[in-house]
Amino acid sequence: MTNYLPFSSMQRQARQAWNASLQHMRATFIFDKAALQNGIRMSVINITPIIIGAITGHLSLGIMAFLSALYVALADVGGAYRDRALAMGSAAVFMTITAFIATIVGANPWLVTLLMFVWAFGGSMLGVYGNLTSKVSFSVIGIFILLMGQPSGLADAWLRVLVFIVGSAWSLGVSLWLWPLRPFQPPRQAVGDYYLALSNLLRKVCHVQINQHWSMVVKAERTRLLEARTKVHQIVVARRTQRADANPIPQRLLMLSLQADKLVETIIALAEELRLVSEQHSSLVERPEFTQTLEACSTLLDKLAHTIIDEQQKLQDTNPEKLLVALATQEQALREALPTLLNDYQALINTRNLANLLKRMARLIREVQGTLTQTGHIELHRDANTPQEAHPHLCSWKASVHEKYTLFRANLTPHSLTFRHALRLGTISALAVAIAKFLHIPYGYWIALTILFILKPDYGSTRERGFQRMGGTVLGGILGIALTTMHNPVLLMLALAAVAFFCFAHQNGNHVLFIQFLTILVVVMIDLGTPNDWPVALIRIGNTLLGGGMGILAGYLFWPQWERERIPEQLGRTIAANRAYIASVLAAYITHGEKKGEREAVRQASMAAHLENVNAAAALQRMLSEPKTHQEDVELFYTLVSYNQRVCDSATALAVQIPSKQTQQQAEQLKRFASQIGWILRDVETATRNARPALVDPTLKESLHDVLVSLQQLTAATPEQPYPLDQRAQPEGADAANPHSGASAHIYI
């Protein structure tokens, strides 16, 4: 029998290798819609100048146009059309100026080394103004590195300026050509992505039996959800119009985004209650039909998202009414179990809350469906849940300049992470340029370019990106050499187009594959100009390895600020945000949300708290990627991050169930509880920032007991009777004459 063991082990290893190969091929050749569109768009932008240059016999100019088009496209920040146009237009202008300067000074090693430091340091410092300036600065620095490596005279400098103008205009035109035809596509996409993120999070948290609530998968989904939410608020909410004659589409998208905000709170509260109920009476929520209903909700959110993105899609096949009936059935099942839990007060309350959340989710789904099927103009009623429009702050250009100058100057300090990174990038880039120039290394500018791509403010990200780039370059160089054995220019051109597509389809996904195909693209492109120059691939590999090594060493040795030094401050901010969130929720409980702006304060505090909790989780993840010698107290920080997230989720579960009434005595007890919680969280926050033990208030337990008694008096009454099942199955206000109540309603967005 033992004779078969080696063969069994070999078969198992072979299966594992085959599965890994299939997974790699699937990741390489299967794309989602966004990756497919990016691959096509970027291929058209970048390959067209090269093809025109090769056909006209001016391949070098075609490559210059390719560089300008590529780096203008890399400055695309996404989102609203005007943001994209501003970023790409700014990059085009500053890149053209930079190309002229770099071409002239590139032959002087001393001057170009000095200017390399100025460009890298100054461009990195501009990152304090946000993502737009960061992307523009990255493109400008990259063009300086590339053009200083190909110096020439004044006439060529002016010719390159002209080519850069043409290439930039081509990139802008292809990227924004649908602007007049589809003016609302960016906000559509943002809102649709928001609903897709909601769907993914709900799909992850509904499987309570495998304890996914605190898994890394769920944390990653929460991060993506917050990013989608932030993007929606930047594109849709912050820029809405309130004119009576405004196009109804922006108003409808705004309403959908506000409804998605409510769904976020509901899903997070649902996850919290699912966890609690599963710990007390798992049989109530581990029924297959319960999980299937939540999965059906996730599927419906997916379909709603695609409908929002593409107005041509309808809701005929979604049958939302069937899902509403299923939700109502599960809600009724939970309510029928309430009498059996009278001896377990905590389980009774949690199960009742879960039933209320299912009811709330059904109502929100009805509202979203109604918004999508409404044909007329939507009036945004000024209620407590609608964010108030901020009056634009009118200020002179002098005040604006002064504000930006103050921000820049405030970051010119060793305590600023931006300043440290800018100084590190400027110094090591200048050193790389000096090495390449004084040692006359062929294609030496690839050393500095590699440093630009991999060097990040934190060491963990630098090391990860460095190894990815070096590994991708080695693999891509080998495959590029193999491709250059084809001596047919037509076949090479076709291969170039295919490689460009796969390269940019992976631009926002797998970085190793992106670098691998980018290296192949560069090697084939150079071979078109100088056939049989295959050693250029080996030179690129060598320069990339040198640049990657210099970048990783710089991140480790040159004035690093380890995450262990920053995470206490981040956790302090997280605790402060949670404290403010809890205070706003309890304030709404005390006045049962009647005061003007109270629910809006809860909404704002919720966004701030969830943001800081995601930042804390990201900081912990960066800390785990750093050397073991700089991972002190990692278990303590992991505990603090996890419990902060649980506190935030508990506050969210409270926020979605603000009571409608309470007695004066209960309000006083809640005030006392709010004061005690505020005090202890403030002390924990200070202790976390200063690394000292926290004090414990001896009266906290007494306060908690008082509040629990008050809550029991509020909620221990007979559970509310659910309305009849056949009524819950219909949208509120729906009847047979209502064309919007049927499952086959058309979508007019």
Structure explained in plain terms:
With 749 residues, this protein is mainly α. Among the domains are: 33-180, no CATH class; 185-378, Methane Monooxygenase Hydroxylase, Chain G, domain 1 (Up-down Bundle); 563-719, no CATH class. 73% of the residues lie in helices and 0% in strands. The protein contains 26 helices and no strands. Helix 3 runs antiparallel to helix 6. It is globular, with a radius of gyration of 29 Å. It starts with a helix and ends in a 21-residue tail after the last helix. Mean pLDDT is 81; it is low at 208-213, 241-245, 379-395 and 716-749.
Secondary structure elements and pairings:
Elements: H1 5-29, H2 33-56, H3 59-74, H4 81-105, H5 109-125, H6 131-148, H7 154-176, H8 185-205, H9 216-237, H10 248-281, H11 288-309, H12 320-336, H13 345-373, H14 397-410, H15 417-438, H16 445-454, H17 459-483, H18 489-505, H19 511-529, H20 535-557, H21 563-590, H22 598-624, H23 634-655, H24 664-690, H25 700-715, H26 725-728
Helix pairs in contact: 2-3, 2-7, 2-18, 3-4, 3-6, 3-7, 4-6, 4-7, 5-6, 5-15, 6-16, 8-9, 8-10, 8-11, 9-10, 9-22, 10-13, 10-23, 11-12, 12-13, 15-16, 15-20, 16-17, 16-20, 17-19, 17-20, 18-19, 21-22, 21-23, 21-24, 22-23, 24-25
